[in-house]
Amino acid sequence: MAEGGKVTGPDRIDARTSDTVELVVTSDVADELHVHGYARKADLVAGRPSTLTLATGIPGVFEVELHGDGLPLTQLRVRR
């Protein structure tokens, strides 16, 4: 992410309920990476990659966004 917008990355990540997903985000501003439905978050430090690892045990489609900014980054789609 740069200048308040998404630079690269998939629009959707597909996973199964038995998977582990690793989200790696580098932002040019400090914020918080948030995965809705999983109540998981990771602090983002400007200019440094941050990693959020989660076990995908809940099926559904979940927004992944910058919490403070509200910027959507991707969707996590988890199927059985």
Radius of gyration: 12 Å
Strands in their spatial order, largest beta sheet: 1-7-6-3-4
Give the strand content.
Answer: over 45%
Roughly how many Å apart are the termini? 31 Å
- Note the quaternary state here: single chain
Average residue pLDDT: 92
Q: Using DSSP, what is the number of strands?
A: 7
Q: Return the structural class.
A: mainly beta
Topology as a string of helices (H) and strands (E): EEEEEEE
Output the keywords.
two-stranded antiparallel sheet, 5-stranded mixed sheet, mainly beta, 80 residues
List the topology elements.
Layout: E1 12-16, E2 20-26, E3 31-35, E4 40-44, E5 49-55, E6 60-66, E7 72-79
Parallel strand pairs: 1-7
Antiparallel strand pairs: 2-5, 3-4, 3-6, 6-7
Structural account:
Helices cover about 0% and strands about 55% of the residues. The protein is an all-beta fold and about 80 residues long. Strand 3 and strand 4 form a beta hairpin.
